[in-house]
Design goal:
elongated, Alpha-Beta Plaits, 149 residues, four-stranded antiparallel beta sheet, alpha+beta, structural constituent of ribosome, ribosomal protein, 2 helices
Amino acid sequence: MALYEHVFLARQDVSAQQVDALVEQYKGVIEANGGKVGRVENWGLKSLTYRINKNRKAHYALMDIDAPPAAVQEMERQMRISEDVLRYMTIAVEKHEEGPSAMMQKRDRDDRPRRDGDRPERSFGDRGPRPDRGPREGGFERRPREDRA
């Protein structure tokens, strides 16, 4: 049997329980056709880059599948019929990844190297006095020009 990673997008107005029911439905299709579903991840409701069928967001779900090609084709056929599934993509892989997928791994912002090197954080208000200028005085004053006397 071949190994696949399958991701599908469900409409934004379906609930999380309905997404879980869709996963179970397609899991049943795979198992009925002689396959197995390994890891299942629900990535939650995320914004889409562009609208798909008037949807700005979608529920994302990932399934690791070990099944014959006919089982995957049947699952994809049923996804094409379903109005709740906006898009899907199945990719054949050499082996399934261990642990959580890249979407589920949360990287802490403090662990990443800073782009600006080791410069300290600075805001616009803490520049301090400028040595090339004297103290500021309030308002503008008009001085008479020398040629206007």
